[in-house]
Structures are given as C-alpha cells and as structure tokens.
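Hi R.,

Here's the chain you asked about this morning:
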Amino acid sequence: MAKVADIGSKRLINLAPDAWVKWVTQRPEVVAKEILGSEFHWISRETDVLVKAYSATHGDFLVLNELQLRYTAQIPLRMRAYTALAQERYRLPTYPVLINILPPPSTLTIDSSYEQEFLGLRAIQDYRVINLWEIDAEIVFGQPLPSLLPFVPILQGGGEVSVVQRALQALRADEELNELESLLAFFASFVLDTPLVQQIMRWDMAVLRESPWYQEIEQRGIQQGLHLGTLQQLIRVLEQRFGEISHEAEIRLEGKNVEQLETLMDSAIAVSSLEEFVSILST
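And the predicted structure, written out as tokens:
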C-alpha cells in the first residue's frame, strides 16, 4: 500500500531531471542518468528522490533530494542517515540536498550539517539547503524549471496575481503539466484569498479538494500540525515546571509520535524533576 506522499516528489523531478540536477548542484555540466529506488528494507522513505547523475569532472554520482513541507529538528540526523544508506547501496559519491518548501517556526534554526561528538569520535554530514521562499520566482520561467512551477506562489516575488497567472499558463500549455494545476492552486491559497485563487483558476475550489495532490498535502499537513502542536505543548509544560530543556531532549521528543507525546505529557505533569522525566524518555 502506498504511503501518503510528500507532494509527489518523484513525479515532479521526473518532469525535467536534467534541469533539476543542474539547479540543485549549481553545476551546468551535470546531467541526470536515471532516478533510482530509494526504499531500504528497514527505513521508511517518504520524501526523498535519488537521482544518478554524471559530470565529466566527477563521473557518476548520486543526488539525494529531500523535499520537506516544513523543516524539523530531526532533519539533520535524517540527512546523515539517508546519505549513508544511499552511498552504501549504490557505491557512489552522494550529494545530499534538502529542499524546504514552507518556512518553519521562527524559533527553529535551519541547519546545513549534522554534527555529533561522542567519546572523542565525531560524525559530520554536510548537505546543501534550498529554502524555496528564498528563491526568485523568475528563475522558474528563465531556466526553465517545470518541476518548480507549482511552487511559484510561495517563491520570492511569486505571490503576485500576474506571476501566478504566468505559472498557470505554463502548466496549461503542456499536457504533461496539466495535473499540477491543483498543486499550484494549493500553494496560491497560502498567499492569495480563496475567491481570488478561484478567479485565477476559473474553476470551483471543490476541484482542488478532490485532487489527490490536495489530499496528500492536506493529510500530511494535518499530521504535522497535530504533532507540532502536541510537541510544543509538552515542551511548554516541561519548561514551566523545570526551566529550559536540553536540545538533545527536544530532538528525542521530536522523534515521538502524537500518541507517545500524549503519554509523555502525563509523565511531565507527574514527575518531580526534569531528570526523572529524561529517564522515562530514555526507556
């Protein structure tokens, strides 16, 4: 059974893989050879796409594309793990790229590397970060980058009606891109009023809600929103009772699902010290 998709990352990159790998690596000589399987038997793969690429300078290598609706504190560790798994499986150098779609809460800093030191040993993984809200919308039309057309409304300068209309015209001009119209409408709804989006698209927003793109993103967004709200509430309770908690404890809390966080909320209220709570967290 297929998992809830991030936003159909593989479908998007498949639209123009050569243009995509040139953009994420910032190397015009790079070409895409094939999109590889990114399923590993012991880890869930929901948001990344592996592309085997080639350049005359570096030969064959992998471009690992991790598309995230919103950045979380767990991402650096995930980038380290995914990069190592991909490199081990395909025995090729790996260039990891994190593409953040929507800005995270202002309290969260986006890291471009994973670093850990334990008993004198260090683990380091660098990766490139692309924040879509920092990308100029004009590059989508100039390069061109059809994979980014649905994201135009949330790009820098992309929230103008005229720019959204240009993106819509580009999607409707290509039969392969038609299905992305509802995805464009979804992101347009972040920056424009719903009636205006309806007017631009010239169809009822019910079409959007029935779209598999919308349902995929909506379900993922609801899940993330519920998880984030429960996590923030738990952290507030701990900080009100015991003061600031460690970054390590916060990351471990992020790894818990909603049900586990709700159980830990009961513990946070019942324990008499932060150390006692951390010991429960470790079990």
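The CA atoms of residues 99 and 280 lie 34 Å apart.

Let me know if you need anything else.
M.
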